[in-house]
Amino acid sequence: MPNIHPWAFEHGTLWVREADGNDALSVQPNVRAILGEAHPEAADALARAMGDSSVATVIERFSAGRRCFVAQVNGAIASYAWVSRGVERIGELERSFRMAPEEAYIWDCATLPPYRSQRLYCALLSHLASHLFRDGITRLWIGASASNSYSIRGFATAGFQHVLDLTYLRVLGIHHLWIRPDSAISAALVKRARVAMSA
Predict the structure, then answer these.
(1) Cβ(8)–Cβ(142) under 8 Å?
(2) C-alpha distances in angstroms, 6 versus 2, 9, 96, 153?
(3) pTM of the model
């Protein structure tokens, strides 16, 4: 699909959590909730929760092998997060994120407005991490806009580590990606992140 706008700009941050013995970390929400994996039969409810997505889009995601985890409060989806393996497109960066076989990428996450500030998001991230590690995944990636302080606090609470910050700019067909690694993270993880985001 051709770029619609003559320019694009994104300042983001990338985090990781590895299956390193801390897999039992459990974050509890401040409201009674059921945390679990959603399946195609929940496509209608998911589409309503996601707002700007159609049922067909949700079904297409499931059909492509993507997984979705949700937090439900009183039977309604209050928070959700999608998970991909292999290759996933990062629209804000206009590039694909290419994962190793043992990796997964968490994306398109949200907590609906009435349920925010209840620790649902970080509890959901903690739950899905434990679930995926039991399935054999050994590394989880997640990212957000650098200005999204709510998501970033959720990453840290759920046991994710900051890997790098990045700035993407496209002007009239010229693309550039600046990467600033976290000095506390291993060089191997930074290298892996660079490879995953390489064009």
Answers:
(1) no
(2) 10, 11, 20, 33
(3) 0.93
